[in-house]
Amino acid sequence: MNLNKKIAIPLSILALSVAGASWFYKSGTFSKQTELHKADGARHQEQSAPPLYTCPMHPFIIKDAPGTCPICAMELVKKVTGAADTTALTPEQQQEMARLGQIALSPTQRVMANVAVQEARVQELTREITAVGLVQYDQSRQAKVTAWIAGRIDALHVNTVGSQVSRDRPVAELYSPDLLATQQEYLLAVKSRDRLKNSPIPAVAQNGEGLVAAARQRLMLFGVKEQQIAELEKAGTPTIKLPIYTPLSGVVVEKMVQQGQYVNVGDVLFNVADLSRVWVEIEVYESEFRNIRIGQAVEIRSQSFPGRGFSGRVAFIYPFLDPKTRTVKARVELPNPGMLLKPDMFVNAVLKVGAGAAVTVPVTAVMDSGKQQTVWVEIRPGVFEPRMVQVGQRTDALVQILSGVRAGEKVAVSGAYLIDSESKLRGGAAEDHSQHTGGAQPEGKVPAVPQQPAPGKKPLNMDDMKM
């Protein structure tokens, strides 16, 4: 009896243990813990595993130590683990992406293709128009010194071209027999007026005043100034030499006479120009002159004075176009301190044109095929979609987007051509971007037909390479 009890009790305990273990296993607690232990072990093994190195140009080359690629001799880079695998997509997803021309890149492929993205932003767009120009005389500040009476140049006070002249100082002295006779007539008229002014007959007194006025008029027509006539009347004797004055102060540009030379009425003695202000005639291309306005600020730069700018404004736009250069000339007026700008000097002009606030992307983001402009938009991490865009104004770094991309969307600013090439290699619809404009089709635009791979040729798939 005691022996049976000793055997029955352990058997009962064993049966209860088996039943409990069976219930614990079926409840899944044990299996979940087992899976957690396996995952922890795999993670620990992955973390403790030595790093692998691969070639950016030949991803199938994998080594467990740094070095160089045996094919292209490039430095091996550390292989990125846990990268997204585009082959994990279902066939339906891959077909849909191919139909839309989308391309998915793993992190390793993005590094290899040097793909960088940037958001499209709304900002003030200011572009610069550059043009070449030629410094010219200000035509309103040019004058000719001419002989108002025939005679002989007895004295020249300006003997060289480039000399500074002033309108208050004579540039030459002229001897003229006609001038001498006219002065004597004036003096006789003055004496007659003085004798006849007290005459009781009014007509006689008025006749004396008329003689003086007629003689004065003749002197003034010969170039004699009012001050000189007053001095002549005060002295009572005629002046043998007539001083000749220039109409304005400036620089002698041309000298046509020599001392002792005889000149006739109307002969040019000097050409004088005031260089305190000059004109710059700039040539603007046919495609740019619509942005030029009268009163627009212009900065003039010269190679003779690097780092220094001269400020002026557009004063006139010529109403014709040069058929040889296909340019329109615009006149810029500006001060010339120190007469640094010389006539016929070549200069560069910079005009800033504001296009207002607009959606902009970097210039490197736009791919121009000649017929259309395309950008690659990152619609979700690692997935890019082609968009046909309409561009507007351009600067050195930015381009205005009129349609196709909205502010805030991320576009590929580098590596876009490699993404496009990858899409073509995968047989995507990269040639037809018209359905990805983000808006309605432009009028008159017919969607391009996607090019299919040639029969018998399989497109190259980069996903086949081991990453």
UniProtKB/TrEMBL annotation:
<dbReference type="Pfam" id="PF25954">
    <property type="entry name" value="Beta-barrel_RND_2"/>
</dbReference>
<feature type="domain" description="CusB-like barrel-sandwich hybrid">
    <location>
        <begin position="143"/>
        <end position="273"/>
    </location>
</feature>
<keyword id="KW-0813">Transport</keyword>
<protein>
    <submittedName>
        <fullName>Co/Zn/Cd efflux system membrane fusion protein</fullName>
    </submittedName>
</protein>
<dbReference type="InterPro" id="IPR045800">
    <property type="entry name" value="HMBD"/>
</dbReference>
<comment type="similarity">
    <text>Belongs to the membrane fusion protein (MFP) (TC 8.A.1) family.</text>
</comment>
<dbReference type="Pfam" id="PF25975">
    <property type="entry name" value="CzcB_C"/>
</dbReference>
<feature type="region of interest" description="Disordered">
    <location>
        <begin position="425"/>
        <end position="467"/>
    </location>
</feature>
<dbReference type="InterPro" id="IPR051909">
    <property type="entry name" value="MFP_Cation_Efflux"/>
</dbReference>
<dbReference type="Pfam" id="PF25919">
    <property type="entry name" value="BSH_CusB"/>
</dbReference>
<dbReference type="InterPro" id="IPR058792">
    <property type="entry name" value="Beta-barrel_RND_2"/>
</dbReference>
<feature type="signal peptide">
    <location>
        <begin position="1"/>
        <end position="21"/>
    </location>
</feature>
<keyword id="KW-0732">Signal</keyword>
<dbReference type="InterPro" id="IPR006143">
    <property type="entry name" value="RND_pump_MFP"/>
</dbReference>
<dbReference type="Pfam" id="PF19335">
    <property type="entry name" value="HMBD"/>
</dbReference>
<feature type="compositionally biased region" description="Basic and acidic residues">
    <location>
        <begin position="425"/>
        <end position="435"/>
    </location>
</feature>
<feature type="domain" description="CusB-like beta-barrel">
    <location>
        <begin position="277"/>
        <end position="351"/>
    </location>
</feature>
<dbReference type="InterPro" id="IPR058790">
    <property type="entry name" value="BSH_CusB"/>
</dbReference>
<feature type="domain" description="CusB-like three alpha-helical bundle">
    <location>
        <begin position="204"/>
        <end position="238"/>
    </location>
</feature>
<feature type="domain" description="Heavy metal binding">
    <location>
        <begin position="53"/>
        <end position="79"/>
    </location>
</feature>
<dbReference type="Pfam" id="PF25869">
    <property type="entry name" value="3HB_CusB"/>
</dbReference>
<dbReference type="InterPro" id="IPR058791">
    <property type="entry name" value="3HB_CusB"/>
</dbReference>
<feature type="domain" description="CzcB-like C-terminal circularly permuted SH3-like">
    <location>
        <begin position="359"/>
        <end position="419"/>
    </location>
</feature>
<dbReference type="InterPro" id="IPR058649">
    <property type="entry name" value="CzcB_C"/>
</dbReference>
